[in-house]
Specification:
Strand order of the largest sheet: 5-9-8
Number of domains: 2
Radius of gyration: 24 Å
Number of strands: 9
Largest sheet: 3 strands, antiparallel
Strand content: 5-15%
Number of helices: 19
Shape: globular
Oligomer: single chain
């Protein structure tokens, strides 16, 4: 069986999950300055329906196959929907275990959700000398939310593979993908029976052999690839962006934003809708990185004492420089937004209104005197107060208290060392890796 490269341990496209990464995980990201809503709107302008974290295409076949093994009623009852989901979850657990059983000695199949749980179950089976397993072992702390149903379900719904509410399969894509996954991976009968009935068992040798055919590192079969390729390209915007990515592969050590800038330049005069959307993305990230640098710089200056005088903030050369940088970035962003006239963009633009109002307030301040910095701190407090945890408003990590700015909560930072330039702030990720993984799994199939 040929091996794909998408799940290698040295793969630079494996997803990163940091405090500031809005990867469409269940719940909300930390997002200390409230940029997520605007970010998601802009990502939808170039790759609608995709997410950063749903970037292992084999999971879509797994999801559809699991749904196909459950009740197939077109108008399922609540109990039938529950049974369908249970079949998906059981198949996911068996598939995760099959991945770790078929991995080379000493290697971990990165990209498998709950891989540590599956490895722990494999090790427990080895210690006991078992030659078969059931499927009622734990996979993730909350498998529904953080496994294939929660992470891939919404994307699969958007690609017209499944109905998210019932896990029912569409005839044109979902049923074909599920059937192709079952047939082309030559799923053992015992695996299907165990997924349908949680009281059965399947032999470890059969799981190991199936994992070599069905795992993340195995290439999809011809029909699975065709369905994935069509699902990626059925949205016209997504199809055009996928083509632009294919025509301009990443250069060595090229960041996503640099590549997007190269694509934007090439699309001018040919696909103005995409080019203008990318232009807004580039300027939005300039604003985001400058604003977050100001925030991180203040946190760093609070240091061990937990507080810093506002006069010291106003005198800091880095804060003054970045304040000017942010004000200039806001002007460029507004110019890019004005130039983006596509109806689809203009209709969704209110999703950016909140962050635009904040940025305009920052722009109206003089870079001297610390006004921009204090606007950022006030923005953070407003954003945090709008979040709730167990019914209680979340506290800001730092806030102005009289003549000082004080830390209120100790949080780790993804910025190492002293924050001095916006280049040290990691930008948002714009789903290009997920799109290219789907395109790669499709293998050019139409």
């Amino acid at each position: 069986m040929a091996r794909a490269t998408a799940a290698r341990s040295d793969d630079p496209l494996l997803p990163f999950l940091t405090a500031y990464d809005p990867s469409d995980l269940p719940g909300t990201s930390v997002d200390p300055l409230g940029f997520d809503r605007g970010y998601n709107f802009l990502a939808d302008q170039i790759l609608p329906g995709l997410t950063n974290v749903a970037r292992q295409p084999r999971y879509f076949g797994l999801l559809c196959a699991g749904a196909l093994l459950g009740p197939t009623s077109n108008t399922p009852t609540r109990s039938e929907v529950t049974a369908r989901q249970a079949a998906v979850l059981r198949l996911e657990r068996l598939w995760a275990l099959a991945n770790v059983l078929s991995a080379a000695p000493g290697e971990s199949p990165l990209g498998v959700r709950g891989v540590r749980y599956a490895e722990a179950h494999r090790d427990a089976l080895s210690r006991s000398g078992a030659r078969a397993t059931g499927c009622e072992f734990q996979l993730l702390g909350r498998q529904v939310q953080y496994g294939v149903v929660g992470i891939y379900g919404n994307v699969a719904h958007g690609m017209r593979l499944v109905d998210r509410a019932t896990l029912g399969l569409t005839e044109d894509h979902g049923e074909r993908l599920g059937a192709a996954f079952l047939e082309e991976t030559r799923i053992p009968r015992a695996v299907k029976e165990t997924a349908r009935d949680g009281h059965r068992e399947v032999g470890l040798d059969a799981l190991r052999e199936w994992g070599a055919r069905a795992g993340l590192s195995a290439m999809p079969g011809a029909e699975e690839a065709r369905v994935l390729a069509r699902a990626l390209r059925q949205d016209p915007v997504r199809a055009r962006m996928a083509a632009a990515l294919e025509e301009r592969p990443p250069k060595k050590a090229e960041t996503e934003l640099v590549r997007l800038a190269r694509i934007e330049k090439a699309l001018r005069g040919h696909d103005e809708e995409l080019a203008r959307a990318i232009a807004v993305i580039l300027q939005y990230e300039g604003c985001y990185r400058a604003a977050l640098l100001l925030f991180e710089r203040v946190r760093w200056m609070c240091g061990a004492s937990g507080a810093v005088p506002r006069t010291e903030l106003a005198a800091d050369s880095v804060l003054r420089s970045v304040s000017a940088e942010l004000r200039e970035a806001v002007s460029r962003l507004e110019h890019a937004i004005t130039s983006a006239t596509a109806p689809r963009f203009r209709e969704g633009l209110p999703r950016m209104q909140d962050v635009r109002a904040f940025l305009e307030a920052a722009k109206s301040c003089s870079p001297a005197g610390g006004g921009v910095t204090m606007t950022v701190i006030a923005r953070h407090a407003d954003v945090q107060h709008g979040k709730f945890d167990r019914g209680q408003r979340k506290l800001p990590w730092l806030e102005a208290q009289g003549a000082h700015v004080c830390l209120t909560l100790a949080r780790s930072s993804e910025v190492s060392g002293e924050p001095t330039t916006s280049e040290g702030i990691r930008p948002h990720e714009y789903r290009t890796a997920a799109a290219e993984a789907l395109a790669g799994a499709g293998g050019g199939a139409q």
